[in-house]
Amino acid sequence: MEIETVETTETDSLALFREQVRNEVKPSMSEAAAQKLRAINETDRLDKIANGRFCTALKSVIVNDENLAKLLTRCHTSAPLTLLERRVHKLNWFISAGFELGREIDSVHLINFFSELTSDETAMTDSQFQNEWNGKDAVKIKQSRLDRGIIASDVPVYRPCKSGKKCLRFEKRKAAPAAGKGEYCGPACSASDRARQKRALAGMPTDTIQ
């Protein structure tokens, strides 16, 4: 007796989706879009170069009222520039508090931000403004930032030459500072100290040399 077999076909509900994935063509960037992207990247590169040069120029500014007034006049973006003396004083206050030009204050926007006057500050008398932004507070804030390690001290740490009183540049009861990361103030002092050590060893009894 023959048994008739019936073939059944299982329906793949995801077949259409798989076919679409196989036939999918990834979109490619048009030449116009590529040129636009290259132009943006080039603009960003030039901006970084310009910002770097601006920061370098700011670091070379000698901080005094006259130079800060010139800086604010050139960088001010809103007109008119009023109460320039107060703006200079406020910017100088932040610099005294450790916010240095070319470091924390490194753009035209930040120069204007740190010198911007509030409505209350524009209405104050000169004495009130001076009390509000007094130099003693700036010094305290800078010291606090130094103590917390937020900024590094701009005063170099004195490391005396290893030669001590025999330092070739010894003066005013102090040896000269050690150069760089070395122990001596210079090659001459280092050679002189080594020669002294050799002479000292040569003069010692042989039974004491280990």
Q: What is the averaged pLDDT score?
A: 82
| Shape assignment | flat
The arrangement of helices and strands along the chain is: HHHHHHHHH
Q: End-to-end distance, in Å?
A: 112 Å
Helix-strand category = mainly alpha
Oligomer: single chain
- Count of separate DSSP helical elements: 9
- Strand percentage lies at under 5%
Instruction: Describe the main β-sheet briefly.
Output: none
Cα gyration radius (Å) = 36 Å
Uncertain residue ranges: 206-210
Determine the fraction of residues in helical runs and give it as a percent range: 40-55%
How many beta-strand segments?
A: 0
Per-chain topology:
Blueprint: H1 15-23, H2 31-59, H3 65-75, H4 84-96, H5 108-115, H6 119-123, H7 126-132, H8 135-147, H9 187-202
Describe this protein's structure:
The protein has 9 helices and no strands. It is flat and about 100 Å long. Among the domains are: 45-147, no CATH class; 164-204, no CATH class. Residues 206-210 have low confidence and may be disordered. It is mostly helical and 210 residues long. Helix 3 (65-75) packs across helix 4. Helices cover 53% and strands 0% of the residues.
In brief:
With 210 residues, this protein is an all-alpha fold. The chain is built from 9 helices and no strands.
Give descriptors for this structure.
disordered C terminus; 210 residues; 53% helix; mainly alpha
